Amino acid sequence: MSTPVSHVHRRQNVRKTLLLGSFLLFPVTFYYLSPYLIIMGAGERTASGSMVAFGVMTLTALVLGRLFCGWVCPAGGLGEALFTVQNRRANNSRNWTRWFVWVPWMAVVVLVTLSAGSIKRIDVLYQTDHGVSLTTAGGMGPYIIFYAVLALLFVLSLTAGKRGFCHHACWMAPFMMIGRRARNVLHLPGVQLRADTPACVACRACTAACPMSLDVQTMVLGQQMENSECILCGTCVDVCPHSVIHYDFGKPRSTNPSQPEKP
Ligand code: SF4
Ligand code: SF4
């Protein structure tokens, strides 16, 4: 059974519009995703907006996985906008580089928190100007950092394949990967992909379209749709000409009895 083209376009158009809108709002939301303000706030015994946001990402990933990355992440918005100039597949075997950023950074957050004593208050608007991250009141410094982050996003997206920043430098993805792994270990129900493997004709359209450069066809044929790099964007769901892949809500499962579930 073919997937209606208008339906395909509608869902992916909505997703891309959300991503682009989130990117355009990045100057407003920048501090809520900041890897620096979480440290600065911890030094003042304050849970900043970014500490709260990273906590929410981890907890919601128990149910929603990396839906944030696929649907509303500002960095993902820029990464996918750049597909028009660079559409090369990323190398998923090198994603470990991301943890070289995340682990030392988390160690610093913990050390600063412990040396300050503990977190005494929550201030979601910490360091913002009435909730807005970048304003002229903050001087040039925050703008320089903002444009440096954008430059990193550009360079990695153009040199390391599709969504190169997500694969190699994103400090937010690990929170959701940890939440997702916990969900799989605890066998909690959540949003996932499901495949009707016998209907697959091995055309590789899903693999070619995946913005995270996953070998989706192999996932389908191996009946193993759980993957820590999957951002649940639904692109494979929508491009498959035989409607093999679906969104699903339920407990983690592997339909292949010879292949255990990946945590
Ligand atoms: S496997 Fe499908 S849902 Fe997951 S990232 Fe790739 S295209 Fe998106
Ligand atoms: S697009 Fe559909 S039919 Fe083609 S390889 Fe992927 S799952 Fe199989």
Could you outline the blueprint of secondary structure elements for this entry?
Elements: H1 5-24, H2 26-29, H3 37-43, E1 46-47, H4 49-64, H5 67-71, H6 74-81, H7 97-116, E2 121-122, H8 141-159, H9 164-168, H10 173-186, E3 190-195, H11 205-209, H12 216-221, H13 235-239, E4 245-250
Parallel strand pairs: 1-2
Antiparallel strand pairs: 3-4
Please, could you describe this protein's structure?
By secondary structure, the chain is mainly alpha-helical. The chain folds into two domains: 5-180, no CATH class; 190-250, Alpha-Beta Plaits, CATH 3.30.70. Helices cover 51% and strands 6% of the residues. It has helices spanning 5-24, 26-29, 37-43, 49-64, 67-71, 74-81, 97-116, 141-159, 164-168, 173-186, 205-209, 216-221, 235-239; strands spanning 46-47, 121-122, 190-195, 245-250. The longest helix has 20 residues, at 5-24. The structure holds iron/sulfur cluster (SF4) (2 copies). One iron/sulfur cluster is lined by residues 200-206, 216-217, 220, 240, 242, 244-245.
Overall radius of gyration = 19 Å
Number of domains: 2
Content of β-strand: 5-15%
Query: What small ligands are held by the chains?
Result: iron/sulfur cluster
Largest sheet: 2 strands, parallel
Structural class: mainly alpha
Q: Counting H and I runs of at least 4 residues, what is the number of helices?
A: 13
Q: For the residues shown, what is the average pLDDT?
A: 92
Classify the helix fraction into a percent range.
40-55%
> Number of DSSP strands?
4
Low-pLDDT parts are 255-263
Q: Shape, please?
A: globular
| Spatial ordering of strands, largest sheet | 1-2
One letter per element, helices H and strands E, the order comes to HHHEHHHHEHHHEHHHE
End-to-end span in angstroms? Answer: 32 Å
Assembly state (oligomeric): single chain
